[in-house]
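ugh finaly. both done.
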Amino acid sequence: MTMTSSDQDQKSLQSQKHYFCGSVAAFANIVITFPIHKALFRQQLFGVQAWEAVRQLQRDGLHTLYRGILPPLLQKSTTIAIMFGLYEDFSRLLRLHAPEAPVLLTDSIAAVLAGTAEAVLTPFERVQTLLQDPRHHGNFQNTAHIFRVLLQQHGIRELYRGLVPILLRNGPSNVLFFGLRGPIKELLPEAETKAGHLVNDFVCGGILGAGLGVVFYPLNLVKSHAQVQIGGEFQSCRTILVNVLRERDGKVSRLFRGVHLNFQRSVVSWGIINATYELLLKCSD
């Protein structure tokens, strides 16, 4: 049967809404959780306790609290849109062209492809890292200034410092997120109201986000340490991890310094993203 123009338009709108809902959900999350993320970054970078990270932010003053929010707003709004949107598109295409393949396999491939595509926006994570590092506060004025300096002095490759840990993180975490989201929600008490569904979506997203945040915490640590460097050799993930471990007296537990705050932030962050995404998706139907 030939697809009519109206059918194609409807299909296009169905595809676009996943991108839109993901983008708005990410925007809301960043605005709410940015100060928590900033404190966590200090813990990852300097290995300090949570209270000391908060004290550092207080000393820096309120005017710098949201310094560096533009890159994550742009990056997260786009990457979460890509994450949900491309996952749905790739899943649909794979099921269409490989109808006999197991759904688990096609959905996993779709999740990895979406995660890999997200890595194109690594420069925004790179700039966010530099803006949040207090050692660079006097060196850069804003997002555009960092982009200009890095491109002029070091070339485009410098913008993608930290790409490897991001790729190692994105694909597997997407597979686990999309693969476990449904089963976890089924384990929760059945919701009978809109508020109940919203709570369940928040809990489901929060549990998944927090759990994955712990599992992939060392990769985020490596990424942060790679991206605060400007110029020089591109070090491997293993080299960075060994160096950080040496700086922290060889104690593996100290690689996870900040993981408690990351866990709490992820519960709130991914709870907001998942609940907002699902709510917007239902409203758009």
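ok and the 2nd:
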Amino acid sequence: MAIGVSDELLGTFVPIAVYWLYSGMYLALDGVERLDVYRLHPREEEAAKNVVSRGAVVRGVLVQQAFQVAVSLTLFAVVGDERGTEQKQPSALVILLQFAIAMFVMDTWQYFMHRYMHINKFLYKHIHSKHHTLVVPYSFGALYNHPVEGLILDTIGGALSFLVSGMTPRTSIFFFSFATIKTVDDHCGLWLPGNILHALFNNNSAYHDIHHQLYGNKYNFSQPFFVMWDKILGTYMPYSIEHRKGGFESRPVKLSIAEQTKTD
């Protein structure tokens, strides 16, 4: 088998393996009760507010990943070298530039498609609301979407990022694995100390948790990397991390001010 074909297969299946391994790590942490102090919601809220079972979530994610595999293999077949030769890797500087371009393209596509699915009442009711049945997000529910949404937001968004950036299949292995880790982390429901992704990105688990709440449903659409489009277009809801009994809470700043005024 040619190396190029191997890179294409790895670019397709490694991010899926990363998804389940990384979310599995969070699932293991979820079983450690002493880490409940880092949860953004009390443990009992998941059962009370989420209207879909974890088994249904796993099945839904597997369906979306099947679509991703089909589109990814088709894309690589269309843009690949017919001779099956390995594509030469560019310099490290060029790869970093390709990463930056791909991140920008993915963020831009997902922001506008995600926001439109909230604006369009039909799309929200019949498509996007499926993801919002997880009011209390958790790691392996990150890609729990309607198949149509998964195709439009994630699969097409990923394909555009790959094509516009001009990255090779080998580079895509690392980019899509990183994007997968970031997406899972944003849905983990934990505010763990020392999380390097929280230090590097303002778009994090607390930021996205705001969006999953009723009061934040029309805010914080940006995903998975930056918050620029929310800030530019007025859909950014600032928040603060507050202590609650037994853990943390991601709270809108306006609500915090109102509560503080009431207390005073």
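summary for the 2nd one i guess: Residues 3-30 form the longest helix (28 residues).
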